Amino acid sequence: MNLRLTLFCYLFLLQSLAFGQTILSGRILDEKGIPLPGVNVLLKGSYDGTTSDVEGSFEFETGKEGMQILIFRLMGFKTFEIPVAIEGGRIQIADQQLREAITEMSGVTISAGAMEASDEKKSVVLRPLDIVTTPSAVGDIVGALQTLPGTSAVGNDGRLFVRGGDASEVGIYIDGLRVANAYGTTAGNVPTRTRFNPNLFKGTFFSTGGYSAEYGQALSSALALNTKDLSIRDQGDLSLMSVGGGYSHTLASEEQSITLTGNYFDLSPYQGLVKQDFDFERAPFGWDLEVAAQKKLGKDGLLKVLGRTESGGMKIRQPEPGQEGAGPLIDLRNQYSYAQGNWSKISPKGWTWFLGASISANSDEIAFDSIQTTRDNQLAHLKASTIRDFSDRVSMKLGVEHFFNTYAEGLPLQNLERSYQDGQSFIYTEWDWYLSKKLVIRGGLRGGLSSLSEEKWLDPRVSFAYQLSENGQVSLAAGKFSQAPLENYRVLNNDLKNTQADHLILNYFWNKDGITFRAEAFHKEYDELIRFEGVPMAPVNLRNEGSGFARGFDLFFRDRQTLKNTDYWVTYSFVDSKRSFEQFTTQVQPGFAPKHNLSVVVKHFVTGLKSQLGASLAVNDGYAYTNPNLPGEMNSKTPGFQNLSLSWSYLPRPNLIIHGAITNVLGRENIFGYDFSTTPNAQGVYESRAIGQPAPRFLFLGIFLTLSKDKNANQLNNL
């Protein structure tokens, strides 16, 4: 009897238990409808679940009842949850699709026209350290960028020329704020440098076209420099160089840091040792003071302040062709100040906020023998922007900014002056849509208006990127870009409108295990360029009538893997550029746009010598110029440009760096064009003078000592 009762109870309980179970089944697919195996499927708050099979199907039993949450998880895909009402029996779940999870490191990125120097980005081309240690750059940011695709080395200028565009077509920004007069003022045909020390910056974004709607008033390129966040230690950095010296001191804590820097340079002692081809009566000299401070505000807020003031000058005689004597004396004095502050914060709800303001003030006093001239300009920039990631698929950038520009030039001895003021307001927006891990679309609009010219404009921009393989992708970018005419033109004609350019760029980017390959084709159409009669020093009848184009391709290859302790990159750019502009009546090849540009940079670290040896080679096919003794415009070309530079960096102690560099080692007599007399001689010939280099070579020696509690710290730790 007991046995039969026990058996009855067991069968009854088993039947009751079976009636209490629910069977859940279904199928899981990706966004293309392909079955996904290996997906973890489970009820939230329980151990009931299973894993999908090779067909993406799943089935499991549960004793749960009522409303439950069913979770789907697979690495590389977004976790997905759905509510399920469990009432017993069998429940067939409708087919579910999992979406790929997209992160900055896994997703495709826009690479058309974009090159980043950062240790954080997947598409990095150069690191901040590379900028400082490029031999031909001698510590100049732009000097290092001139080894990248799309750029041209114009040795008698020193500024950044990109894809057939003039140096004024490059917009320079620090922490998103525009910098006016970013290069030091110099005399004609004496090369200049950027004003700012590369040690200030943690990363560099350099675009050769098709850049973000955030940046405007630049036809060819945007160069965005991002300053460092909090410094990590107290330290002092002493620099002793063949052209001057400086000292920088940093005080740092977990919440704030400040760096004070002072530098002085004077080329007189150097030029006393190294013969110059230029006739300097007073070698270039100058000093600068700089402060950079950072402070955490709350959990995710950061305040940055940067201030700089500097002064310098030179005296030089430049002979005139067909004239006897040393030529007129040019006496130049420059005063420059720049200040900015910006605040950024990441809010808990996914918004990133930015507020910033900057002001640039430049004053030049230039004497041409007895003629005294002055030039003053200021640019104030106010900016507010926000970024919102609505998901890992959709991101929005929205911003407003205002520029206030004043410019004046005059002849103080004659009490003559002309000037203008202009306020420009902008609104921009940009959206990124990740349609999948392999495809992203970026669309942007930038609208602006000018109070001086009473002009309004709207510039659309769009970019696409598609991942072809794990390491390779293709990008396409197009857009319209506008830029106000140069200040010395606008002051003569306040009604001048924006110059314009349309960009089209096709890019292929491949990166794997320390090897990077980049190929890019481009086409630019210019419109509304400034034309005038006369000469650039005294133009008349200025108007927006010019047009032109620039087209070509760039190749870039970098290898940090194949050769032990060796890093090298090779760049080749072909640029076919013609434009009708300034005094030219036909479309001509600009003198700043060589067709063929090649650069090679090699760095090798010798462990036993605690040294890095560097070499860089820059070559182009010469510069176009107009020879008035021949018919036509831009009818001649200089011999090809060549510059081989070497460097040696020695670390005898971790906190001591000795760096030496020599440019144009072979002493090639590079010529960048010719100055011609304004009238022919008795034989009917316009006499000429070659525009060359200040000296066959430039030698640099620097000793950099870091003083800190950490004896291993040095100035390279800042980069």
Automatic annotation (TrEMBL):
Residues 138-217 form the TonB-dependent receptor plug domain. Its main location: membrane. The keyword ATP-binding does not apply. This is TonB-dependent receptor. Keywords: Cell outer membrane, Membrane, Receptor, Signal, Transmembrane, Transmembrane beta strand, Transport. It comes from the Bacteria. The keyword Signal applies. It is a multi-pass membrane protein. InterPro entries: Beta-barrel_TonB_sf, CarboxyPept-like_regulatory, Plug_dom, Plug_dom_sf, TonB-dep_rcpt-like. It is found in: Cell outer membrane.
